[in-house]
Protein: YchJ family metal-binding protein
Amino acid sequence: MRSRYTAFTLGDANYLWQTHHPDYRQGEAPQSSAKEDLGQWEKLQIIFSCDFKDGQAGMVEFKAHCREQSQRQILHERSNFKKVNERWFYTDGEFAPKALARNSACPCGSGKKFKQCCNKS
Ligand SMILES: [Zn+2]
Structure:
């Protein structure tokens, strides 16, 4: 997750492609390893993260702060990851997700309340 954020900050579209789960990719692979303008990323804030299915899947909710044409933007996403051959791959995500109630069931499926499980805040 952090390495994908770093790739965004570096404009490394190739790395982002390679860490995107093959079943979930859309469009074409980047043509070259040349850096692309993916915006200016300033800060990554992790809201929570959890692993589940014996560490074979994970979820990370984050806010990434970036600047586009001098406008401050915040990308708020809850991303899903799957592990393949001991490597994490991004699958998909939900943009601007609703906040999880502290007493609701944890999204990791543990059966515990969110506040007693993956909630980090
Ligand atoms: Zn959990």
Notes: Residues 2-116 form a domain with the Nuclear Transport Factor 2; Chain: A, fold (CATH 3.10.450.50).
